[in-house]
Amino acid sequence: MSGRVILFCRERFTAELAWAELAPLLPGWTIRTCPPTAVAGHLAGVDVVCPFGAWIDRTVLEAGSFGLVHQYGVGLEKVDIALATRLGIWVARVPGDAAGNADSVAEFAVLHLLAVLRRLDDTRAALRDRRWESRPTGGSLLGATVVIAGLGAIGTAVTRRLVPFGTRLLAVRAHPDRGGPPGVERVVGPGELTELLGEADVVVCCAMYDGRSPAMFGPAQFAAMKRGATFVNVARGGLVDEVALLAALESGQVRGAGLDVHAIEPADPGSALLSHPGVIATPHVGALTEVMFRRTSSVFAENVLRWAAGEAPRWAANAPTTCRS
After folding, report:
1. What is the DSSP string of 156-172?
2. CB of 204 within 8 A of CB of 158?
3. Which residues have a Cβ under 8 Å from the Cβ of 183 and sit 6 or more positions away?
4. Of residues 325, 293, 298, 292, the one with CA closest to residue 314
5. Which sign does the torsion angle of CA 307, 310, 315, 318 carry?
6. What angle do CA 158, 12, 210 make, to 5 degrees?
7. Mean pLDDT confidence for 212-227
8. Which end of the chain, N or C, is more open, meaning fewer C-beta atoms within 10 Å of its C-beta?
9. What DSSP element (H or E) covers 225?
């Protein structure tokens, strides 16, 4: 389709990878970029918008004539899907298990788990300060009970990686009747989360977030965990009451936390939570691998071309009755 334009709402995928690398997969298309805070001013002639963290709200949806909002990944919590549907705009995503996203995030979840349990920051400081006689004692995944909150593509990928560590795996999912992958001992519904947390040495949050539901982890959930538990969030910051998490860390109820996602992004590294000595934090980079970029680019471009040819996109989050072209 010559003359088509796609707008990516972040100027690069990462410092090393540019959106222009998708050009061979979208022949005849023009690839544009803009800052995530200035989307509405860059919509002239745009056919497809890729949010990648930008808000696609009423201002953006009504300002353009684009017919497809396609996320380069899973998260659509910043897209007003209801309004997009009324305006005839398709909204689609790339599932975590379709293009390497889930595997990349799962690897990063394990990285956070090990870094917190083995007290990576403290051990590096001990080496730097020549404190060989006072090296810190780390925890271990061996024999630990791990609760996976959210057993979708990412949660399932996390379980596959934790089985060889000798962990006991429990999980929470929206449809517990679907069970879990090999190695998961028990699966319960969201209503039983707090009770299940009483068995948790480690909790990994991998749940979906729609941008509207209340925090999944608040004071009651942190209080329910075993004292000294470890908490990791690689899902969305809005799933966690960060004030409650900080209080749990300060009281020792939670010994350490690994956070790749934050309630407000970009996050403030000087905040009380992120500067707490028990926290290892990263800037929402779990999915940002070259493997994810290459595989997602292929699937993403194929779906954009499918829509441009007049077909319904795969993995659509809506189904407009009348469509913008």
Report:
1. HHHHHHHGGGT-EEEEE
2. yes
3. 159, 160, 162, 163, 169
4. 298
5. positive
6. 45
7. 94
8. C
9. none
